[in-house]
Design a protein that fits this description.
- The two termini are about 15 Å apart.
- The strands form four sheets. Strands 1, 12, 13, 14, 16, 19 and 21 form a seven-stranded antiparallel beta sheet that branches. Strands 2-3-10-5-8-11 form a six-stranded antiparallel beta sheet, with no helix packed on it.
- It is about 0% helix and about 55% strand.
- The protein is mainly beta and about 250 residues long.
- The chain folds into two domains: about 15-130, Jelly Rolls (Sandwich); about 135-245, Jelly Rolls.
- The radius of gyration is 18 Å and the shape is globular.
Length: about 250
């Protein structure tokens, strides 16, 4: 039996940098389930952020504006990162970062969580990994390029989908056992749920959050290509992880 994808759970968000910050760090939520959290952090220059090792979470930090220095553990510098760069953090890695330069840091925090009670899986990776997105050229005859930004051990995958004008994956489909999010880095896109009647337009820094089983499709609109940060988090609490087309 073919499962029916839902569209009522599709969450739409728009990120706008706060005009004023009451604290050195401001967290702007973009979507959350028990499996995936996506948020933007706006950090004033010179402000440190420290994170303890977490055996149930792997995450990616992706810089949208400003610059950041990331440290593995206490003092081991991983690197300094600007726009379309960042780091991936496997399970059980302690780390910290600080905003540097004159501009406030704007950084996406994408975290996948193992929902199984007491799950503490040791990562095969023992250190943070730099992640860098460089916009690719299109292959001849291709409407979409999908360079990987990060594929984790077992939970998290982050790619950027670069889509030509008129290109996309417009046929409604849903992913079961996978929570997804789309964050538009540039361009203009027509996004829809299970029905084309539910279509809406997305522009730079608009986001869509897709719980498991949420039906959707999209198509790029502008003469310039659209670039989407695409996040997939595997729900390890279920055995079924499939795509269904409608």
């Amino acid at each position: 039996m073919i499962e029916v994808g839902r569209s009522e759970d599709l969450g739409r968000f728009t990120y706008e940098k706060p005009l004023a910050q009451a604290a050195p760090t401001t967290v702007v939520p973009l979507g959350q389930t028990d499996v995936l959290t996506v948020e933007m952090r706006v950090v004033q220059s010179g402000t440190p952020s420290v994170f303890e090792a977490d055996p149930t979470t792997e995450c990616v930090w992706f810089v949208v504006g400003g610059r950041a220095r990331f440290y593995d553990g206490v003092d081991a510098l991983v690197g300094e990162f600007g726009e379309s760069e960042g780091v991936a953090v496997p399970r059980s890695i302690a780390y910290r970062f600080e905003a540097v330069g004159d501009a406030d840091l704007q950084v996406l925090h994408i975290a996948a969580v193992d929902p199984r009670l007491g799950a503490e899986v040791q990562s095969e990776r023992t250190a943070m990994q730099p992640v860098i997105y460089e916009s690719p050229e299109f292959d001849e005859g291709s409407d979409i390029q999908v360079p990987r930004v990060w594929v984790g051990d077992d939970m998290l995958a982050v790619t950027v989908e670069k889509v030509r004008d008129g290109g996309g994956d417009d046929r409604p489909h849903a992913h079961f056992g996978i929570v997804g999010a789309w964050f538009l880095l540039s361009g203009r896109v027509r996004f829809h749920g299970a029905s084309d009647d539910e279509a809406f337009e997305m522009t730079t820094h608009d986001a869509v959050f897709l719980p498991s089983g949420t039906a959707y499709g999209f198509r790029a609109l502008d003469h310039e290509p659209a670039e989407f940060l695409h996040v997939k988090a595997l729900d390890l609490g279920t055995e079924k992880h499939v795509r269904v087309d409608y």
